[in-house]
Structures are given as C-alpha cells and as structure tokens.
Write a structure and sequence with these properties.
Structural class: alpha/beta
CATH superfamily of the largest domain: Response regulator
Number of helices: 8
Helix content: 40-55%
CATH architecture of the largest domain: 3-Layer(aba) Sandwich
Radius of gyration: 18 Å
Order of helices and strands: EHEHEHEHEHEEEEHEHHEE
Mean pLDDT: 87
Number of strands: 12
Strand content: 15-25%
Distance between the termini: 31 Å
CATH class of the largest domain: Alpha Beta
Largest sheet: 5 strands, parallel
Number of domains: 2
Shape: globular
C-alpha cells in the first residue's frame, strides 16, 4: 500500500511528526494538519486516499470533520484518539468513520489498519490488495497505478481520482455532482463541464492503450445525470 496519500490530523506536534516519520518510512506520502481548519483545507486541496484523525482538536471537534467529509466523499477515516469510552467510539463510527484506534498504539498495528482500509477502499470489485480489474483494465487504488494489459497508462492526479471513483462504483450510476464533489470539492459544484472534459480525456488515454478496443463503451454517459462503468458481465 506504499505510495498512498495520507492526511494526518493531530494537534500534538511531537506525536504528529513522529507518526509522519514512521508512516513515511513505510512509503506513504503524508500531509500534516495541526487543527480542524487546516485539515479541511488540505482535504479539499489534496483529496488524500485516507485520513488519520484525532478527535480532540483545538479549534473544533473531530466529529465535525467526519460530518463534513461524509457530505461529499467516502474517503476512509481512521480515528486516532485518547478517548476510549464506548460512546465516543460508537458516535465516530456511526457518523462515518471507518475504524477507531485508541492511543497509545504501535506502528505495526497502525500500518495494518491503514492497509486494511486502503484495500477496502477499492470497493466490492477489488481483490484482497485493493486492485480493481475490469477486463484488461487494472486500477491499483492504493498505489495510484493504472494498466491496460501490460501497458502503464499515465494519468494526472485528477484523472486518476475520477477513474477511481468510477471503478470503485462499477455497475452503479455516479452523478455528475457527486463526481465533482469527490474529485474537485464543493466549491466546484456548478462546473459540470470539468467532468465532461476529464471523462473525454480518460476515454482517450484508455483507448490509446487498448488497440483491441476491449474497453470501448466501458464508461457510459447517462445523459443529464452522470456516468456509469459497465463491468464485462453487464455488457
């Protein structure tokens, strides 16, 4: 799972830096935020693959961040908190956190929890490593890698995020609004042309890597609504 982008939200500077060093040693790209405002700013700007969130922040409670993120995205959220009461754990999980780790904890357990969440983020079509395969298309969600057959497909960060959302919801309709919020953020809610342009770019790059045309028609436009990735059995 190395290469995945993590947002670490922790107000304790010494702990945050120690965790960031330990995670970077495992190959993760770590963005740090010391408070809730910075966390939301960096989430909007970077759209990380996973969020490590302390609940006890100086400017807002971590549950507010969970609520805000869950309005737009399914980004995995792992709570790292000294709060060990059952009510705190249940509240965070019911609001949309994916896992809860009570401080103090070991780096091995943290790494294992992160790995499990990243694999799960690949959606129901992913294998045990979080890799989604649709015909000759292979999307490694955690490593930000895309292949068609044996050929790597270079995508920009936005193109990859768009493809990730589509393939992790393969077979299901994803509205244009949801794609905008998940990939660009809520401030782009009216910029529907962004999605159309980027879907066209995705189709063109995938087609260039797929001369046999096995992926033709994989990304289907639902006029006026959104897009759907058709898995081979549904075609």
């Amino acid at each position: 799972m190395s290469g995945a982008r993590l947002l670490l939200v922790e107000d304790d500077t010494e702990m945050r830096r120690a965790l960031a060093r330990g995670l970077a040693a495992h190959g993760f790209a770590v963005e740090e935020a010391p408070n809730g405002v910075r966390a939301l700013e960096r989430w909007e700007a970077r759209r990380p693959d996973l969020i490590l969130l302390d609940l006890g922040l100086p400017d807002m409670d971590g549950v507010s961040i969970i609520r805000r993120i869950r309005r737009d995205a399914t980004t995995p959220i792992l709570i790292l908190s000294a709060r060990d009461r059952e009510n705190d754990r249940v509240q965070a999980l019911e609001l949309g956190a994916d896992d809860y780790l009570t401080k103090p904890f070991g780096m091995r357990e943290l790494h294992a929890r992160i790995g499990a969440l990243l694999r799960r983020a690949g959606g129901p079509t992913a294998d045990r490593e979080g890799v989604v395969s649709i015909g000759p298309l292979v999307v490694d969600v955690a490593r930000h890698a895309v292949r068609v057959g044996n050929q790597d497909v270079p995508l920009t960060p936005r193109e990859f995020e768009l493809l990730k959302v589509l393939v992790t919801h393969a077979g299901r309709l994803v509205t244009t609004g949801r794609l905008l919020r998940a990939v660009w953020g809520t401030s782009y809610d009216q910029q529907t042309h962004y999605v159309h342009v980027y879907v066209s770019q995705l189709r063109r790059k995938l087609a260039a890597a797929d001369p046999a045309g096995a992926l033709d028609g994989m990304i289907v436009t639902e006029p006026g609504v959104g897009y759907r990735v058709i898995i081979p059995a549904d075609r």
